[in-house]
Amino acid sequence: xxxxxxxxxxxxxxxxxxxxxxxxxxxxxxxxxxxxxxxxxxxxxxxxxxxxxxxxxxxxxxxxxxxxxxxxxxxxxxxxxxxxxxxxxxxxxxxxxxxxxxxxxxxxxxxxxxxxxxxxxxxxxxxxxxxxxxxxxxxxxxxxxxxxxxxxxxxxxxxxxxxxxxxxxxxxxxxxxxxxxxxxxxxxxxxxxxxxxxxxxxxxxxxxxxxxxxxxxxxxxxxxxxxxxxxxxxxxxxxxxxxxxxxxxx
Length: 250
Ligand SMILES: Nc1nc2c(ncn2[C@@H]2O[C@H](COP(=O)(O)OP(=O)(O)OP(=O)(O)O)[C@@H](O)[C@H]2O)c(=O)[nH]1
Ligand SMILES: [Mg+2]
Prior knowledge:
seven-stranded mixed beta sheet; binds magnesium ion; binds guanosine-5'-triphosphate; globular; alpha/beta; two-stranded parallel sheet; about 250 residues
């Protein structure tokens, strides 16, 4: 692997971070502070100058207030609250707009995605347009639900057949890429809906000639709170998204 990578130090005051980790939150009060601390610890141990940008959609459980209370004094943690707007993909887009890093990391905020992979994924993002934390390459997996593991696996097969994408995990949503990629993509049609945004993001990247690397990751149990994924409802939405992408390219 080549490339200079991010500086092996913490940013000095006023200096923009090299890496921004964007975390969309909705009712994640139970585990968010622990996760952010974990990300900072892993990042700092690897010498990454990083910031964490949390985008909370005014969670009724007080996620944002809680995080500000616990970690608000750390300048590497920024908590943005959107009011009157909800949605996973649009929250991620908002966070990417707020992020200052050269390399951008998108993760779930409930602890499903293990931050241990962040330093490797950030390094690999020097050589690939997108690095995916993948359940379906050797060493990857999912501790949480066998049903969800195999259902998502089958849906990924369908995505590969319908869209011709040579990616094993199009739905992971654990993504690392350089900011400059966003300048090359048609961003507005990508970031709407739920986890299906990741399929549009990867599809556009590959169609632009971008290279995607999958790094194995094992989904962990969420740290607390409840799932927002309405599995069966989202199945039809995702299916429609995949065929729309095939037919219209958007
Ligand atoms: N800002 C924001 N974040 C959201 C919204 N819906 C979901 N999220 C976040 O998106 C991430 C994924 O949602 P989850 O409920 O964990 O979905 P999941 O991982 O498929 O479900 P589990 O396996 O049960 O964890 C979590 O970090 C949520 O907090 C939303 O409307 N706004
Ligand atoms: Mg989750």
